[in-house]
Amino acid sequence: MASSPAGKVNVGIVGAGNISDIYLKNLSAMFDNINVVGIADLVVERAQDRAEKFGVGAFSVDELLAHPDVEIVLNLTIPAVHAEIAGKAIANGKSAYNEKPLATNREDGKALLAEASAQGVLVGSAPDTFLGGGLQSARKYLDDGLIGAPVAVSAQMLGHGMESWHPDPSFFFQPGAGPLFDVGVYYVQALASMIGPVARVASMARASFPERIVGNGPKLGEKIAVNTPTHIMSSLEFENGVIGALGASFDVWETTNSTLVIYGSEGTLRLPDPNTFGGPLQLLKGGETKWTDLPLVYGNTENSRGLGVWDMANAIQTGEAVRASGELGYHVLDIMTAVLDSAEQGRHVEVESTVDRPDLLPLA
Ligand SMILES: NC(=O)c1ccc[n+]([C@@H]2O[C@H](COP(=O)([O-])OP(=O)(O)OC[C@H]3O[C@@H](n4cnc5c(N)ncnc54)[C@H](O)[C@@H]3O)[C@@H](O)[C@H]2O)c1
């Protein structure tokens, strides 16, 4: 039996890279139901560095995954090992929460859900930005009927990719990443959480440039071979009949970087960048020409990474359903895989999985 401080759920972290800082900062300072036991990484010094900085324990990966006090393993490793690390955590009787994507392919994602169910533990997956004040407020306005019945969506994540600034950008151009799995995932998940599950997709995709040149850091000037589509345009048909457009590109010059719009029978909602937690959120009422800013009615509008872990800890304590759940993460993975399959096969592809929309957070 795990021993945790009163009212708290013990979390152990695997992966002490880039994103671990904000998680460690938020989990300790922002959420009163979480106690961070410690952190582990393949690169031992990285775990030790983070452990010292945030006053938590440093462990080997195997020690952390088997630690008797750890109840949730927060998996901040690279996508290629998300399934492996979460699988080991689950086999040890821990709940697992993965950074995005849940896994890099359907088989691994499905296996995680089945193993968690067999073990009686929970599985969850980022992004958790849809639990932030911007997207929760948008969902509330939508559910309250502000724009009537949803008819269409447009999600466009358009830009030129990461090679100009990232010190080691090769992985962005390999299978399992690319503009859809790396960034488009925020748009797909925001839409699935607000509009509901996607039934089928039809796409076209290509890599407009066969290689990229590293523009920054120690690898400056090195060539990267592009091995995954970097320009993807897809039509999505949701189970409720909404039809929309999804674009994800690293092949165009674009500075606004995000448009996520829901068109309803009575008006249009322009949503915030789904890779953020706040606003702006804007409304265009049917028949009018001027957009108005809508007030955000939910909190957590700053960088609140960790909200999904907080929600999972809450689910462990109360028995409520997890919002950033493995089922939602799997459906998003299934949609993204179907989008690429459709482009490759030149046909509509049905999305086999389905999922219920997660509940809105309580307004208080
Ligand atoms: N960096 C960001 O801004 C950002 C934002 C949102 C989400 N994410 C997601 O967070 C995850 C991590 O991203 P990052 O930017 O921190 O990457 P990173 O490369 O900086 O860190 C990943 C860490 O995982 C460790 N690792 C790799 N394989 C391991 C294994 N088998 N066992 C234990 N540790 C292992 C690496 O040593 C490294 O320290 C990814 O899924 C990414 O998509 C990153």
Describe what you observe in this structure.
The chain has 364 residues and is α/β, with parallel strands linked by helices. The chain has two domains: 9-125, NAD(P)-binding Rossmann-like Domain (Rossmann fold), CATH 3.40.50; 130-299 and 330-350, Dihydrodipicolinate Reductase, domain 2, CATH 3.30.360. The protein is 30% helix and 23% strand. It is built from nine helices and 17 strands. The strands form three sheets. The chain has a nine-stranded mixed sheet. The protein starts with 8 loop residues before the first strand and ends in a 14-residue tail after the last strand. The model has no long low-confidence stretch (mean pLDDT 96). It binds nicotinamide-adenine-dinucleotide. Nicotinamide-adenine-dinucleotide is lined by residues 14-19, 41-43, 46, 61, 76-79, 81, 85, 99-100.
Sum this structure up briefly:
By secondary structure, this protein is of the alpha/beta class. The chain has helices at 20-29, 44-54, 61-66, 82-91, 106-119, 133-143, 178-194, 307-318, 326-345, and strands at residues 9-14, 34-40, 57-59, 72-75, 95-98, 123-125, 150-158, 198-206, 211-213, 223-225, 231-238, 243-249, 259-264, 267-271, 282-285, 292-293, 349-350.
Write the layout of secondary structure elements.
Layout: E1 9-14, H1 20-29, E2 34-40, H2 44-54, E3 57-59, H3 61-66, E4 72-75, H4 82-91, E5 95-98, H5 106-119, E6 123-125, H6 133-143, E7 150-158, H7 178-194, E8 198-206, E9 211-213, E10 223-225, E11 231-238, E12 243-249, E13 259-264, E14 267-271, E15 282-285, E16 292-293, H8 307-318, H9 326-345, E17 349-350
Parallel strand pairs: 1-2, 1-4, 2-3, 4-5, 5-6, 7-12
Antiparallel strand pairs: 7-13, 8-11, 8-17, 9-10, 11-12, 13-14, 14-15, 15-16
Helix pairs in contact: 4-5, 5-9, 7-9
Bound molecules: nicotinamide-adenine-dinucleotide.
